[in-house]
Design a protein that fits this description.
This protein is of the alpha/beta class. It is about 40% helix and about 15% strand. It starts with 5 loop residues before the first strand and ends with a helix. The structure holds flavin mononucleotide.
Length: about 325
């Protein structure tokens, strides 16, 4: 069978399927299940910047009851009560001794705050790498895109100055200059970009006239946004790219690798089908490679990226045209 091993942020993974940061990875037992099911690596559930700085209740209350999926709110509260920092470091240590696959810690942050000191302790606890889930909601009409993007770059400078382990930035698509920001993060030594974070969303209840949480699991068509951007960025920036959001099966993994992804993260499909689905996905990628005669992931990674394409303009076509669609 084909060799599915990859390098991601300098780490050796047996295959490109990573379990994304979520409740699936918030305990040693959860991490062990992911490893037993064949994951290439895991990203632990995030510790929140506010937990590190001890403002736990503030974030839960400030965000309102509908904003947080209950798992997130309970998690934040419980970690706050039980000493978030020590609990998280212990999770890293225990996960590292329980499994042989790489364990990536995760910090959820909104700026370059006190958590950058904590990043050193994450490294000392034995994490193989650190993923930062960082998001500045560009909702302040007085701040321009450049000011918002500087927050990400400052965070990259701060964390790279403090840690020796590889660092990934998990970001959303809401940048005024997405490709430029990605390149600047890469230039600052960020080892990988994880594209794209899927944010908690709300909906309106028009009977009760209040907010209600929208479905918190993704659907497979949501992978098309990261697919486009990984295709566009993979020839332009030096750091690794990992896909997240909407990858539910082996075909989804193959597509993201064809776009140029070094690795692919999965969550929603594992909530829906159970973590044993990882084995089905990994086997499916291997079978696809065997069928096409690819001996290694490197043989097809990026083959359908914009830079490898004979029709690069197609990747930037964003408007519907009657003539090309034929069905409007
Ligand atoms: C219940 C749940 C909890 C999550 N918690 C975190 C988290 O703590 N940190 C984080 O970076 N992402 C978190 N995520 C987002 C996932 O890591 C992932 O990026 C997102 O679900 C999109 O991938 P998917 O379509 O495979 O689910 C969470 C997702 C779910 C469903």
């Amino acid at each position: 069978m084909a060799d599915l091993s990859i390098r991601y942020m300098g780490l050796e993974l047996a295959n490109p399927v990573i379990v994304g940061s979520s409740g699936l990875t918030d305990s040693v037992e959860g991490v062990r299940k992911c490893a037993d099911a064949g994951a290439g690596a895991v990203v632990l559930k995030s510790i929140f910047e506010e937990q590190i700085s001890g403002e736990v209740e503030r974030i839960v209350h400030a965000s309102g009851p509908s904003y947080w999926h209950s798992e997130g709110a309970n998690y934040v509260r419980s970690y706050g009560r039980e000493n978030a920092v020590e609990g998280y470091l212990e999770l890293i240590r225990e996960a590292k001794s329980a499994v042989s696959i790489p364990v990536i810690a995760s910090i959820h942050c909104v700026s370059a705050g006190v958590w950058t000191e904590f990043a050193q302790r994450v490294e000392q606890a034995g994490a193989d790498a650190l993923e930062l889930n960082i998001f500045v909601l560009p909702s302040d009409a007085t701040r321009d895109g450049h000011a918002n993007e500087q927050v990400y770059l400052a965070a990259a400078d701060a964390v790279k100055a403090k840690t020796g382990i590889p660092v990934a930035f998990k970001v959303g698509p809401f940048f005024s200059g997405l490709a430029n920001t990605a390149r600047e993060l890469s230039r600052r030594g960020v080892d990988a970009l994880v594209l794209f974070n899927r944010f908690a969303r709300f909906d309106f209840d028009v009977d009760k006239m209040e907010l209600r949480p929208a479905p918190f699991l993704s659907g497979p068509d949501e992978m098309l946004v990261p697919l486009r951007w990984i295709s566009i960025l993979s020839g332009q920036i030096d750091c690794d790219l990992a896909a997240t959001t909407g990858v539910h099966d082996a075909t989804g993994v193959v597509k993201q690798i064809l776009a140029g992804a070094a690795a692919v993260q999965m969550c929603s499909a594992l909530y829906q089908k159970g973590v044993d689905h990882i084995g089905t996905v990994v086997d499916g990628v291997g079978a696809w490679m065997d069928g096409r005669g690819y001996a290694s992931i490197a043989d097809f990674r990026g083959k359908m990226s914009q830079s490898e394409s004979e029709n690069p303009a197609a990747y930037e076509r964003v408007q519907f045209m009657k003539a090309t669609r034929g069905q409007d």
